[in-house]
Amino acid sequence: MKTIVHKADSRGFANHGWLQANHSFSFASWYQPDKVHFGALRVLNDDIIAPKMGFGTHPHDNMEIITIPLKGELKHRDNMKDDWQKVLPGEVQVMSAGTGVQHSEINGSVDEYLSLFQIWIIPEKRSVEPRYDQKKFNAEDRKGKLQTLVTSFKDNDEESLKIHQDVKLSRIDLSEGETFTYNLMSKDHGVYVMNISGESEINEENLDSRDAVGISETDSFTVKSISNTELLFIEVPMIEL
Length: 241
Known about the structure:
Elements: E1 2-6, E2 12-15, E3 19-23, E4 41-49, E5 54-60, E6 64-71, E7 74-78, E8 81-87, E9 91-96, E10 101-107, E11 114-121, E12 131-136, E13 147-152, E14 161-163, E15 168-174, E16 179-183, E17 189-197, E18 200-202, E19 205-207, E20 212-216, E21 220-225, E22 229-237
Parallel strand pairs: 13-14
Antiparallel strand pairs: 1-20, 2-3, 3-4, 4-11, 5-10, 6-9, 6-11, 7-8, 7-10, 9-12, 13-15, 15-22, 16-21, 17-20, 17-22, 18-19, 18-21
């Protein structure tokens, strides 16, 4: 088993006033040569956005973009659909940028901060037709068991959102003292585990809130929850850039 530990305080940080951004991987002006990607996972940003503020219209292409609101109200609009779309905690949004998308993202609340993860996955196909989708996932369905959020179009899981890469994004909520064994799809995959909250232990490594560990070259690994814990698993092919 190969592991790489990214403690929360080792992430890049940018304070834009209206935006507090933590970068697990090199992003914008923050560059770390040893933190450019984990396999096909290129970006994992942990953002806090002030009320009524957000990102104006900007372009993306040839990237699979996944947004997971944790608190507050996200509003999204793109050139595939003119109306603003609400994305709330419990929901997940996917967007295949493909040949090119223009979109905007704002905090839809006038008085509450918005907290979210935004994830960029390098696609297995370039220049696909742009696509948008979102879905609600019930929190009770991940208590003590894995809840799959996003998989490949090639995967037979009919309940998950789909993107153009051989991935599995999933969440689990563990009570204090619970253990869970994660089984990888193949030895060509690795899993980037974000400890969203609480404290857990993986491969004798203690993870606190927002600590992460990348795991590869193994069939499985076991998570032990030290306290009530929320975890996000991002399983990706271990491609080289």
